[in-house]
Write a structure and sequence with these properties.
167 residues, mainly alpha, Recoverin, domain 1, three-stranded antiparallel sheet, 3 strands, globular
């Protein structure tokens, strides 16, 4: 957790420099508390870096496709000339991401994750899939991750302004 704490302090220090007055001085502390609540429920003092990265990516203001590519990058494994995501890695990703809606009582069950994995690998004979298949599946907005594009769309609409006046 110390490594994640240092990384968060550095990240939010840079954000404060880029956007003065828009980033709370305690942002790193609050974010670390959220990550601990999501990924260290038993109080071990340990949070997997990959899990923390998945949460930060999903909660970032980046475009959906950029988030999806980052997920692949963090969870895929090199296999000779290609980089692939296995069922096990996808299970880890979905389990990690499911902790976010679970914080507000909206997480899904283990069987929901297994159904999503089966759906992603539908028609695949290999033990792993390439990035394009993974991205294609995510673009279909699987139910287990429906909250992610929904949150993205909500945050994107916050910046929209219209020059119309209502009566």
């Amino acid at each position: 957790m110390q490594q994640i704490s240092r990384m968060l302090m550095k990240l939010f220090r840079r954000a404060r420099l880029e956007k003065p007055g828009q980033v709370d001085r305690r942002a790193a502390e609050f974010t670390l508390s959220l990550l601990v609540a999501m990924y260290d429920r038993s109080g071990t003092g340990y949070v997997k870096t990959r899990s923390a990265a998945a949460a930060l990516i999903s909660l970032s203001g980046d475009a959906l496709l950029a988030k999806y590519r980052a997920f692949f990058q963090f969870y895929a494994v090199p296999d000779g000339k290609a980089t692939l995501i296995t069922r096990s890695a996808l299970r880890s990703l979905l389990t990690d991401l499911n902790q976010i809606p679970a914080m507000v009582g909206e997480g899904c069950t283990r069987s929901c994750v297994e159904i999503a994995i089966h759906d992603c690998f539908h028609g695949v004979l290999n033990a792993a899939i390439v990035e394009e298949k993974f991205l294609s599946w995510l673009r279909s907005e699987p139910a287990v991750l429906l909250w992610l594009p929904t949150c993205y769309r909500l945050s994107a609409t916050e910046m929209v302004s219209h020059q119309a006046r209502c009566r």
